[in-house]
Amino acid sequence: MKVKAACLVDYYSIEELVEALGNVGLPRPFFHIGGGSNILLMNDFPGTVLHSCIRFIDHTRLESGVSVRAGAGVPWDDFCLWCAERGLWGPENLSMIPGEVGAAAVQNIGAYGREVCEIISTVECFDTEQHTMVALRPEECAYGYRDSIFKNEGKGRYIVTAVSFNLREEYSPELGYGNVLEAVTRSCGQFAVHEHMLTPSQVRSVIVNIRSGKLPDPVKVGSAGSFFRNPVVPAEKYGQLARDFGETVPHYDLGGGKVKIPAAWLIDRCGWKGYRGANAGVWDSQPLVIVNATGNASPQEIKDLEDRIRASVLEKFGIELMPEVEHVS
Ligand code: EPU
Questions:
Q1: Are the C-beta atoms of residues 200 and 83 closer than 8 Å to each other?
Q2: Over the chain, what is the mean pLDDT?
Q3: Model confidence at 248: pLDDT above 90
Q4: Neighbouring C-beta atoms of residue 276, cutoff 10 Å
Q5: Is the pLDDT of residue 60 over 80?
């Protein structure tokens, strides 16, 4: 079921953004979106949705590598493809994540052992409080797991207009996550892996294959990617789960007495995998993803399914899942 905004402004330059922000004729409040791939609009939106169409990619060679600067409105995967085609290492493991460059920096997207904050050098923003442009370094963006200043104290204040990335020409694939090394070896051969002959494009296509096998194609089936964050629990809680459910409970040790448990495993163990309601469902190869299976699910149907999943995980494991998806009411 579709929801509507009172007004949508696609802007193509910082000047057009500033003009829209000052335009008293536009309905308030403003709400800025990227590709809209990680939000759940609960109702029609009475204000103005702002969306960046600032789309450019340029690059500068530095002593430390190559600096690539991209407009906030560049589709994220176009950026990944652009870099891979030029032999630049950095974003290849983040290939095929839906959304746009600006939202990637807001959300600190991550996959297959890499988070975007590791390759960001500067985030350029329009500061709506000071009415000026600012360039934030990653240390100033308070990056965490799927988190940043732009989702907390800077929300509504900073509008990302462009992002610069520090990329490398030297051989630097990240193959340590899950079955990535195995999949790369199968696709490119032992020799290429051992002799350091892989290219960013090869790693990108392996990642694209892994993702296509696990995640719904957003063009065909509506979803917001991972609906929940992977919960971080105290090591004692993990110990208790391991005792209660066997040593096979998958986990990532974060150090400092904290352990991250895959929400997918918790949801799977509650029996939700492949669940189909009237219109909303749970993806059968990645239960972290709630899908609009028929295309007709209302926002409330998605929210009801979310609530049922959270309640069952809480009841079975005593763990509260937090949504990664932003709800706009
Ligand atoms: N698992 C199950 N059942 C399943 C699928 C997975 O039990 O059907 C368990 C397995 O133990 C598996 C573990 O969950 O080892 C982790 O699964 P996976 O490697 O697919 O990763 P994830 O932790 O579920 C995260 C990101 C994804 C990202 C993948 C790959 C979050 C919330 N999600 O998922 O991000 O693609 O890692 O790096 O951190 C997204 O944000 O939209 C997204 C898809």
A1: yes
A2: 96
A3: no
A4: 12
A5: yes
CATH topology agreement for domains 60-214 and 222-328: no
The answer on pLDDT for 277 being more than 80 is yes
Q: Ligand 1: distance of its center to the CA of 167 in Å?
A: 26
Q: Does 146 participate in catalysis according to the annotation?
A: yes
For residue 32, report the distance from its CA to the centre of ligand 1, in Å. 27
| pLDDT for the residue 63 | 87
The C-alpha atoms of residue 176 and residue 13 are separated, in whole angstroms, by: 39
CATH 2.60.120.10 is the classification of domain 222-328: no
CATH architecture classification, 60-214: 2-Layer Sandwich (3.30)
Task: Say which DSSP state 118 is in.
Answer: G
Residues 297-311, mean pLDDT to the nearest whole number? 97
- Spatial separation of the C-alpha atoms in residues 209 and 183, rounded to whole Å: 9
Assign residue 245 a region (left: φ > 0; alpha: ψ between -120 and 50; beta: otherwise).
alpha
From the candidates 92, 100, 301, 324, which is the catalytic residue?
A: 324
Q: Is 158 in the pocket of ligand 1 (CB under 6 A)?
A: no
Nearest-CA residue for ligand 1 atom 37 is 111
User: Is 324 annotated in the active site?
Assistant: yes
Residue recorded with tokens 């490119």? 188
Give the position, in ligand 1's atom list, of the atom nearest the Cα of 111.
38
Q: Could you state, in order of their start, the residue ranges of all structural domains in the chain?
A: 5-52, 60-214, 222-328
Tens digits of per-residue pLDDT, 70-92? 999 999 999 999 999 999 999 99
User: Which member of 52, 164, 223, 226 is catalytic?
Assistant: 226
Are 224 and 325 in contact, with CB atoms under 8 Å apart? yes
- Burial of 15 (C-beta count, 10 Å sphere; 0-12/13-18/19+): exposed
- Reading the block at residue 208, the tokens are 């694209």
